[in-house]
Design a protein that fits this description.
The protein is an alpha+beta fold and 503 residues long. It is 14% helix and 32% strand. A hairpin with a 4-residue loop joins strand 4 (46-53) and strand 5 (58-61). The chain starts with a helix and ends with a helix. This is chymotrypsin.
Length: 503
């Protein structure tokens, strides 16, 4: 009788979109570490919902998961695909439910959890990227992950993390299914016997490495071919970005002013051709591990924004215009190393300090060099190594040098590749470099290639390497890839400043 009552209550909860036991039916077991952003939420060591890592202190989940439960009762477990073993445990200290959460209609079903200490990132623990634009790809097969029963009756919990691919439903069709559904939802359509159900509430729906949905609710009878309803993350990105800084100790009431300043500086930089988005045009996919010194500079809000290079276990070399806006808040910058995929793999390190060359000029990009000190030492491997710095000036003319980076692969517009790109460029005579523009000086080095090849928006801060030595840092070039020289900061001109600060 007790089991029957429990089942009836669970079905009733699901009918209202709650159901702290939504689960995946007809999923497959995930490989260990395959979904490093997925976490298990537990109360008294019992799994009750899923969630995703969005920063080193914050977890995103569904609001209905946290109804009636105190932060002191919640533990977040990251870094394991099993419920019975492994992983790192983090105590929740704060829960923030969206103020527009409606438990009757299951609307605005999103919440955040702050944990008591920094989450340690590694191969099995990584944050998920948040959307920078809405996702409306009808029929796209998105990934859903979670632990939970693998069948409806009787419920049988699955110890291993499961994953399943679900197609995104047309939004008009989604809206027509229930009065509870609004444009702040996103639906997936499934075949009978497959989909989300009791146990995976709060878990992430991911497309192209970006979390687009949060499991919210579905039909009382799971996996019968009815749509599964998710919270549309894009509808709440502003709320997420406002909430996390509001409660984080490293932020102040000046946060809004700071964000405006970042935007203004980015616009100003772009107007002068510097742009935090310089990219390689005409490049090709780099072999895995071929450039172990290359890093991606990222933020939780915008993902990859610049390149850089490892110069020792604690320091990264990049362009000043990339990180000038982060001097007061270096902890916003994450450095991804050891992978050719800017969205996954490798390891993440957090910036502790940003140093801008004192002679840097934002108006003409003179002395466009900066250093980033990390909070912890980089672990060197075959795919993670420092680059050699010059011991003398580089004066070879028409000499090949290699540029690497992530960025749009076409000019004037194009998609940004996930895979690292590389291209060989020719270093030109210094007199020709100086004649490029009034902004160039002896502390620059230039390359020139045919139209349709070269550096442009998205690779700023990335390394130019000749004979295994970094000779340049991507600085600026206008317009892109039309046969005009690309301009780099000449590393040799700043070697004393680099050594003084790094050592």
């Amino acid at each position: 009788m007790f089991r029957f009552v429990v089942l009836v209550l669970a079905l009733a909860a699901s009918a209202h979109g709650a159901g702290l036991t939504d689960r995946i039916i007809a999923g497959l077991p995930a490989d260990e570490g395959e979904y490093p952003y997925t976490v298990s939420l537990r109360s008294y060591n019992r799994h009750f919902c899923g969630g995703s890592i969005v920063s080193n202190r914050w977890i995103m989940t569904a609001a209905h998961c946290l109804s009636g439960i105190q932060p002191s009762q919640i533990t977040v477990v990251a870094g394991t695909n099993r419920l019975d073993s492994g992983g790192e445990f983090y105590q929740a200290i704060r829960t923030v439910i969206n103020p527009n959460w409606n438990s009757v209609l299951t609307r605005n079903d999103i919440a955040l959890i702050e944990v008591s200490r920094d989450i340690v990132f590694g191969d099995k623990v990584q944050p998920i990227a948040l959307p920078t634009e809405d996702f409306n790809e009808v029929g796209y097969w998105a990934e859903l992950t979670g632990w939970g029963s693998v069948r409806l009756i009787p419920p049988v919990a699955k110890n291993e993390l499961q994953y399943v691919f679900l197609p995104i439903m047309d939004q008009a069709e989604c809206l027509s299914r229930s009065i509870k559904i609004t444009n702040s939802n996103i639906c997936t359509s499934t075949r009978t016997g497959q989909g989300a159900c009791y146990g995976d509430s709060g878990n992430p729906l991911v497309a192209e490495g970006v979390q687009i949905g949060i499991v919210s609710w579905g039909s009382p009878l799971c996996a019968i071919g009815q749509p599964d309803v998710h919270t549309r993350v894009w509808s709440f990105v502003d709320w997420i970005n406002e909430t996390i800084p509001k409660f984080a100790s490293v932020f102040t009431t000046l946060d809004t002013m700071y964000r405006s300043l970042v935007l203004l500086l980015a616009v100003a930089a772009s107007a002068y051709g510097g742009s935090v988005g310089e990219r390689i045009v005409g490049g090709t996919d780099a072999p895995d591990g071929a450039y172990p010194y290359q890093v991606s500079l990222q933020t939780l809000l915008s993902g990859h924004f610049c390149g850089g290079s490892i110069i020792n276990a604690r320091w990264i070399l990049t362009a000043a215009h990339c990180v000038m806006s982060y001097q007061l808040w270096p902890g916003m910058v994450r450095v991804r190393v050891g992978t050719n995929d800017r969205r996954s793999g490798g390891s993440i390190y957090i910036a502790r300090r940003v140093l801008i060359n004192p002679d840097y000029s934002a108006s003409d990009f003179r002395s466009d060099v900066a250093l980033i000190r990390l909070t912890s030492s980089i672990t060197f491997t075959e795919k993670v190594q420092p680059i050699a710095l010059p011991t003398e000036d580089f004066t070879k003319v028409n000499y090949p040098a290699v540029l690497t980076g992530w960025g749009s692969i076409a000019f004037p517009s194009g998609s940004s590749p996930r895979r690292l790109q590389h291209i060989t460029l020719n270093i030109i005579d210094q007199e020709a470099c100086l004649a490029r523009d009034w902004r160039t000086s002896e502390s620059n080095i230039c390359t020139l290639t045919v139209a349709g090849e070269g550096a442009c928006h998205g690779d700023s801060g990335g390394p130019l390497v000749a004979d295994g030595v970094q000779v340049g840092i991507v600085s600026w070039g206008t317009p892109c890839a039309v046969g005009e020289p690309d301009v780099f900061a000449r590393v040799w001109s700043f070697i004393d400043w680099i050594n003084e600060n790094v050592n």
